[in-house]
Amino acid sequence: MSPTFRELEPRTETTRLRERLDRLRASMEWASDAIPRDVRAEVRETIGRCDERLSLGVDWTIVALAGGTGSGKSSLFNAITGSDFAVPGVTRPTTSHASSASWSRGSGGLLDWLGVQDEHRFEVPHAPEALAGLVLIDLPDHDSINVANRDVADRIVPLADLLVWVVDPQKYADHALHSAYLQVASVHGQPSLVALNHTDRLSDEDTMAIVQDLQRLLGEDGLVEVPVIPVSARTGRGLDNLRAELAGAVESRTVASEAVRADLVSAGKALARALAKDAEPTMPDPAEIVGSLARLAGIDARAEAAAAVAAGRAHAIPSLEPISLASVERERLDWVDAATDGLPLTWRRVLTDTIATGEELTASLNEELAAIEWPEVTAPSGWRARLSRGLRGGAESKAVAAIGREAVARVVRRSLHDPTLMIHQAYRNLDELTELD
Q1: Chain center to CA of 123
Q2: Which of 20, 55, 212, 420 counts the highest number of beta carbons within 10 A?
Q3: What are the pLDDT digits (tens) for 272-319?
Q4: Does domain 59-252 have CATH number 3.90.850.10?
């Protein structure tokens, strides 16, 4: 038979993120009860968001223009796209819906996911290659008096791959913007940059003074490496710099994956609260509990009796009596103690609920042992057999012990070892995610 080969897709950053997300999902399924309810809800929401984003592919780079009333988002949107598609605040006090501009065809599925209505979608004609794959979103004002408008902005902001915070010279220090959005973006590690609009109304000295003060405020928000770009949607000042930033994001093709990665970082920070720092789950030695249970089940005694019959010192091997629940439960609890040493209490509860109960373990052991077909052991006959009865007794004893211990080991494997291994792997996966940065 000739070997056949199958070409595999290259392992990209997207596949690595997918693998990491799958491990996070599996770990949460295995050990969700060990995670506080609020953290569990946050992580599951993150899983859903990342899952959707990765399923749509990362060929698109979603850039959202976010800001308050009067910041000039819509005018900046039009200036970047070279169109009059978005209605600026001069005509309407606030942006009431999300508008989009796509620099390539085929973004319909992504825009459906973002909730952008068909009539508010614009395809940039003769789009430059440097921006191919860019989807620009003009968001409603975050400080709109209309709750529905704010809800649209709040829903899309976490979904963006890159946030462009558009601020104006009068309200760039607005507390609501910094506390409700910029600080949250810092915690989540969401890629961002800030566009200081309306700089045509300022002198160069005033512009630089505001840029420096804005950088100071961003540093207090935790956004120490976020660039501030002075722009003017009216005169075109700084637009080339802004477009270059957008082109750089598109060219790298990593903004979308970094957004997913940032989400996973945020989930990891939340999960850290449910994990013990520097704890390493340790698997108890299965051979130890197998030996203890075999002894309690009477297997060692049966092996000795088999040796005695084979050596001519006894005439019969007694049947095994059912192992008692109390004996099994003591061994089970010792296993739990060893398997959760150093872990938070919630993980002990999860492990206890995941492995077999004392009743289940006892029943499985008794059933497995009752089903064994033990080898027939006979007393020696003839002078040759009598001379070798010591050897025969040792061999029969080992055979009986091995058969009995293997039966116990099968029960331990499926009832204790494998479920514990699963929980330990869940803990390690979650611990790994807390270190993702």
Answers
A1: 35
A2: 420
A3: 877 887 788 999 999 999 999 999 999 888 888 777 777 667 667 778
A4: no
Q: How many CA atoms lie within 13 A of 291 on its CB side?
A: 5
CB-based contact 53:256 (threshold 8 Å): yes
Handedness of CA 273, 276, 277, 278 (dihedral sign): negative
Phi, psi angles (nearest 5°) of residue 229: -115, 115
Bridge partners of 135?
62, 102
Domain ranges of the chain: 59-252, 286-434
**How many CB atoms within 10 Å of residue 85?**
18
Give residue 8's identity as a one-letter amino acid code: L
pLDDT in tens, 72-117: 888 999 999 987 766 554 444 445 688 999 998 888 888 888 889 9
Confidence band for 253, pLDDT divided at 50, 70 and 90: low
Q: What is the 3-state secondary structure (H, E, C) of the chain?
A: CCCCCCCCCCCCHHHHHHHHHHHHHHHHHHHHHHCCHHHHHHHHHHHHHHHHHHHCCCCCEEEEEEECCCCCHHHHHHHHHCCCCCCCCCCCCCCCCCEEEECCCCCHHHHHHHCCCHHHEEECCCCCHHHCCEEEEECCCCCCCCHHHHHHHHHHHHHCCEEEEEECCCCCCCHHHHHHHHHHHHHHCCCEEEEECCHHHCCHHHHHHHHHHHHHHHHHHCCCCCCEEECCCCCCCCHHHHHHHHHHHHHHCCHHHHHHHHHHHHHHHHHHHHCCCCCCCCCCCHHHHHHHHHHHHCHHHHHHHHHHHHCCCCCCCCCCCCCCHHHHHHHHHHHHHHHCCCCCHHHHHHHHHHCCCHHHHHHHHHHHHHCCCCCCCCCCCHHHHHHCHHHHHHHHHHHHHHHHHHHHHHHHHHHHHHHHHHHHHHHHHHHHHHCCC
* C-alpha–C-alpha distance, residues 236 and 168, integer Å: 15
Residues 280-318 as b or e (16 or more Cβ within 10 Å = b) = ebeebebeebbbbbbebbbbbebbbbbbbbbbbebeebe
Which residues make Cβ contacts (< 8 Å) with residue 65, sequence separation at least 6? 73, 76, 77, 136, 137, 138, 139, 164, 166
